[in-house]
């Protein structure tokens, strides 16, 4: 049942919940550094290497809404532990993979389990903390993403280079196992079960329709650019439209009969939720910045992979520190905190674009730090803007919706901004052409974040 009294162990429980927040993005960032070693050891083709990354991203994005809804129905503690156990099994499968096919299978399972585990953290924070403590709790939540971005880049390189016990790249997956071995017993002891008082029945047809529609939409966006947009990518994108429309029609019909849909269409009658989800979509255009920055560092400045990873660290540090500033900013700006963070990001992006265009690269750490700081301030505030629009019994669904929106946004903007960048700076482009492409693309990301800031700029939480 839903928690009505304050849990005295809520801050200890938060530490456990944040483990489920940390592991999914950490595994994304940590893998980037290990990919060259994986290709060499497993004799993986470039297509296999791309699949190792994309299958995780696609499975994660497609399953997030279902994952959040499972917590609402069956209990967030139970689903959190199940997801974490499954993530551990998938990590072991990846760590001991004898071939690229097994590794891709493990990454698929990792993505699904991450999407089942992750929304329970945010939904449980919404359920167990009173309103006056939520901003502080969400600051820890936001800082965890910043920690993942910093630690992932550094830890991946350290683990692969150290070659602990001769494990090489396998340690980037196996390191999850001791963390999970500690987190699951702690979750059993410290988390209090919470779910809707009236448990719904899982809408299996709706889940299948949504998964099919999202997969048909997201997969081409992830795979299309690398494969030069083959016919099947275009066919899947077209197919996604009737699938998602069929899902929406089915959910509306089911709710009108008084049954339990996977997603309640009536929730979207709230203009606040629609605007804040739209803000989340435009906000995560920043995901494409990591792609264009890496190409700019290596193609225009001639830096290697390690130097590129170190160059982006100021952004990660800002992302880690930003959430700690968020509560004090909330006390002054209220619901405009998210927009304030986004404005900082726009400032940093424009500053970085100008510096790159003028070749003043030694000053780039400053705008990168500003971008990360703004991201860290905006994330917890934006999450709360969305989740607070929904009845607490649907907090898992709300967590899944906002998380899925961010992941879908990442896929869309990596395709759009990446397409813009590589049109301006195709293979073999000169350093000045890459500089220009980076500056224009960074400005386009800033424009998207400006739209997000306008959408969530309002006077009070509702």
Could you explain the architecture of this structure?
By secondary structure, the protein is mainly α. It folds into three domains: 199 residues, Up-down Bundle (Growth Hormone, Chain: A), CATH 1.20.1250.20; 59 residues; 196 residues, Growth Hormone, Chain: A, CATH 1.20.1250. It is 78% helix and 0% strand. Helix 1 packs antiparallel against helix 2. The protein is globular, with a radius of gyration of 21 Å. It is a multi-pass membrane protein. This is MFS transporter.
Annotation field: number of helices: 17
First-to-last CA distance: 24 Å
CATH class category label of the largest domain: Mainly Alpha
Output the CATH topology of the largest domain.
Growth Hormone, Chain: A
Tally of domains:
3
Which percent band covers the strand fraction? Answer: under 5%
Which spans have pLDDT < 50 for at least 5 consecutive residues? none
The CATH superfamily of the largest domain bears the name: MFS general substrate transporter like domains
By secondary-structure content and strand pairing, the structural class works out as mainly alpha
Instruction: Return Rg in Å.
Output: 21 Å
What does the largest sheet look like? Answer: none
Overall CATH architecture of the largest domain:
Up-down Bundle
Compressed to H and E, one letter per element, the order equals HHHHHHHHHHHHHHHHH
Number of strands: 0
Rough outline: globular
InterPro entries: MFS, MFS_dom, MFS_trans_sf
Transmembrane segments: 12-38, 50-67, 79-102, 108-128, 140-160, 172-191, 203-222, 228-248, 277-296, 308-326, 338-357, 363-385, 397-422, 434-457
Keywords: Membrane, Transmembrane, Transmembrane helix
GO molecular function, one term: transmembrane transporter activity
């Amino acid at each position: 049942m839903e928690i009505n009294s304050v849990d005295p162990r809520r801050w200890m429980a938060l530490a456990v919940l944040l483990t489920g927040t940390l592991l999914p993005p950490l595994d994304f960032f940590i893998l980037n550094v290990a990919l060259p070693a994986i290709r060499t050891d497993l004799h993986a083709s470039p297509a296999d290497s791309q699949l190792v990354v994309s299958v995780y991203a696609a499975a994660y994005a497609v399953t997030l809404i279902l994952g959040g809804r499972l917590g609402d129905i069956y209990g967030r503690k139970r689903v959190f532990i199940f997801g974490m156990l499954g993530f551990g099994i998938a990590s072991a499968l990846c760590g001991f993979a004898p071939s690229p096919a097994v590794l891709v299978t493990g990454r698929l399972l990792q993505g699904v389990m991450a999407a089942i585990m992750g929304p329970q953290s945010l939904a449980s924070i919404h359920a167990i903390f009173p309103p006056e403590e939520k901003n502080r709790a969400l600051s820890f939540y936001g800082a965890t993403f910043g920690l993942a971005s910093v630690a992932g880049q550094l830890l991946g390189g350290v683990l692969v280079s150290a070659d602990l016990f001769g494990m090489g790249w396998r340690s980037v997956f196996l390191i999850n196992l001791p963390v999970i071995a500690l987190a699951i017993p702690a979750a059993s002891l410290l988390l209090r079960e919470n779910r809707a008082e009236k448990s719904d029945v899982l809408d299996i047809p709706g889940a299948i329709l949504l998964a099919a529609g999202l997969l048909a939409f997201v997969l081409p966006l992830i795979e299309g650019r690398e494969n030069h947009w083959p016919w099947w990518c275009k066919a899947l994108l077209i197919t996604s439209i009737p699938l998602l429309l069929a899902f929406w029609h089915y959910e509306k019909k089911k709710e009108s009969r008084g049954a339990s849909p996977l997603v309640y269409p009536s929730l979207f009658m709230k203009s606040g939720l629609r605007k804040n989800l739209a803000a989340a979509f435009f906000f995560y255009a920043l995901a494409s910045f990591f792609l264009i920055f890496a190409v700019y560092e290596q193609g225009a400045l001639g830096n290697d992979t390690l130097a590129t990873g170190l160059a982006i660290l100021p952004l990660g540090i800002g992302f880690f520190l930003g959430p700690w500033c968020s509560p004090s900013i909330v006390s002054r700006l209220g619901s405009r905190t998210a927009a304030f963070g986004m404005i900082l990001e726009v400032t940093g992006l424009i500053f970085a674009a100008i510096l790159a265009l003028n070749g003043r690269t030694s000053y780039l750490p400053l705008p990168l730090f500003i971008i990360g700081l703004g991201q860290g301030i905006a994330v917890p505030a934006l999450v709360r803007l969305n989740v607070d629009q929904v009845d607490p019994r649907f907090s898992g669904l709300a967590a899944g919706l906002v998380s899925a929106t961010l992941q879908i946004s990442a896929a869309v903007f990596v395709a759009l901004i990446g397409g813009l960048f590589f049109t301006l700076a195709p293979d073999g482009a000169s350093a000045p052409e890459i500089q220009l492409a980076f500056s224009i693309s960074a400005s386009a990301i800033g424009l998207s974040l400006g739209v997000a800031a306008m959408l969530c700029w309002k006077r009070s939480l509702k």
